[in-house]
Design brief:
CATH architecture of the largest domain: 3-Layer(aba) Sandwich
Number of helices: 8
Number of domains: 2
Largest sheet: 8 strands, mixed
Structural class: alpha/beta
Shape: elongated
Helix content: 40-55%
Strand content: 5-15%
Strand order of the largest sheet: 3-2-1-4-5-6-7-8
Distance between the termini: 59 Å
Amino acid sequence: MKFSKIVMFGAGNLAFHMAEALHKSGYRIVQVYSRTEVNARKLADLVNARPITNYNEFDPTADILIFALNDSVLPGFIDKIQFSGQLALHTSGSLPMDIFKGKADHYGVLYPLQTFSKFRNVNFYEIPLFIEAGNPKDLANLQMFASSLCARILHADSSQRRKIHLSAVFASNFVNHMYSLGEHLIKQSGFSFDILKPIILETALKAIESGDPVSSQTGPAVRMNADTMAKHLEMLSDSSNMQKIYTFVSNSIVEMHHNESII
């Protein structure tokens, strides 16, 4: 099956990068939907598509509909769409494929495992891309479609994908929050976030190159250095939330490496 016309529902970070990758791969995106006209137009202009703000105006002759919308609105949004034979795909890591069941005849999931921001260039071809479809024929079509976007296509059902998404929350979202807390603390010492960049990079590279983050763990918790940790907690006395985070994460490290708690 040749996908000659695509409608992109969504104009956020993921939609931005996926639409751009599709456009560069030679696919024709005919429409971009967003509730906000300015957002729809920005992405539509990038991929030579027509912006729409009314979902009822989507082109019914499109071959594929991609739903790159917030998880909290996606199921209700899909309920409003009148499908007529298109291959319908959502891009969520946490929502099941079956949100299309009983609504679309042909459906699946196209989930890229990456963190996206519009200001960052991403090589989509190198991103792990997880796919799932409602039947073998749709899966074959989706495999063909996905392979033009990415070199690493992986099959995962909805249960597996939820666990993959959860692991990404820990490995990306939570880690980035730790960067934010680290930035807050280092500014209090009179220095900028730049001072932390070498240790952040080295930590990431050790985990990536070894393939075993457990073995590359360092710091006072894995060394069972209770005195140092007690001093750190005292330094965080003006923030009960940061004390809780420090205590919880330190105990988690100790439990993983020594099967006990320390603070």
